[in-house]
Amino acid sequence: MVDHSLYKEKSIQGRYINMEAIQPCFSKVSCPITHIGYSVEGIGINAFRLGKGGKKVLMWSQMHGNESTTTKAVWDLVNFLQSDDSLAQNILRECSLMIVPMLNPDGARIYTRENFNKVDLNRDAKDLTQPESIALRNLFESFHPDFCFNLHDQRTLFSAGKANKSATVSFLSPASNQERHITPTREVAMKLIVGMNAMLQKHIPSQVGRYDDGFNDNCIGDTFQMLNVPTILFESGHYPKDYEREKTRELIFLSIIEALKIITNNEIDTYKTGDYFSIPGNQKLFFDVIIRNPELVNPEIEPGQKVGIRYKEVLDVDKIIFKPEIAEIGLLEGFYGHQTIECIDTKDFGFASSEKEILDLLLKTKK
Question: Which residues pair with 209 in a beta bridge?
Fold first, then answer.
């Protein structure tokens, strides 16, 4: 197993990653940088090609500007691939990797999902109304990839199935038609996902999820799958107490390497398509915090009810703060919390000083 700590790009940490933060990383790349276009605000979008093999893999990160975990993992991957590790050398001998570390620099700068024009680039694959979408499509058509890796983050609310397990990593082999047929292209992507899942179960058992495969031909994964290129959606999710997503970063790094190893060694057909469907489907069953017995703090809340809190990610200069917001008040049967707060009595609320903001929210809550 590859030791992630040897290759972690220490210059980038946390959730707020913009183009300025990764600019020094480009200077470490041992190959020419290719300019593929500009963002709406005129920031250059760059890519680079590693390896000389015949198996072509196109991967892009931060299509959504506030989804930065895979960007960190990509730079860790670059450090690994430029090392003397024998697996890295084998991958570069068999594969050619075209990497776009940040497709949406405007969204990354202001920490939004959309680009500067407030367009979701992952809903612009068919219409191609935005310069970032056009840049990726032109790269796809000039590079002629055999595989595509679409790298994203997902919210903390997702569970892996209905169990009390967060979906720390999720995958999808997108559909290429409304009927969601298992086409040969889609089947290849499924088998690669099965291979990555087998590896991840050794690290995060029961914490891998399968993303919903509803068809939308304006989504980039569905579009590329329609164009007969096996495409995999990677979703970086929540690992317990890892809101900066540094552990998830490691798991995505390992997942990409595992997929590249399977491709390099021609092992795709050793995995079974049916095992893809044994990966539990993502469910939206988590709150960041569940408060029990909240009526002991606020008599406006009926006994027996719970308060579910989810954090809103807010950009504060150059870091992300997690602002609690009450998402739901009710019985919350079948829901889980990444943290549970038990109100004890009116004299001892059971809140730590760091949870004062949550306490203030609870006190202000009305029926």
Answer: 170
Identify whether the C-beta of residue 282 lies closer than 8 Å to the C-beta of residue 332: no
3-class state of residue 153 by DSSP: strand
Domain span including residue 189: 4-284
Same domain, 174 and 137: yes
Last residue of a domain, one of 284, 302, 324: 284
Spatial distance between the Cα atoms of 198 and 201, rounded to a whole number of angstroms: 5
Whether 179 sits among the annotated catalytic residues: the reply is: no
What pLDDT, on the 0 to 100 scale, is given for residue 353? Answer: 56
Residue 50's SS3 state is strand
Looking at the DSSP assignment, which residues form a beta bridge with residue 247?
none
From 67, 94, 132, 235, the catalytic residue: 235
Sheet order of strands, 286-292 included = 319-330, 306-316, 286-292, 336-342
DSSP three-state, residue 133: helix
Residues 6+ apart with CB under 8 A from 202: none
Distance between CA atoms of residues 129 and 119, nearest Å? 9
Confidence of residue 363 (pLDDT cuts 50, 70, 90): confident
Q: What does R_g of the chain's alpha carbons equal in angstroms?
A: 21
Find how far residue 359's CA is from the centre of its chain.
31
Contact 225, 172 (CB under 8 A): no
Given the structure tokens 């970086």, which residue do they identify? Answer: 236
Question: For 96-125, how does the pLDDT look when each residue is reduced to its tens digit (9 = 90+)?
Answer: 999 999 999 999 999 999 999 999 999 999
Do 239 and 108 have their domain in common?
yes
Residue 68 has pLDDT above 70, yes or no: yes
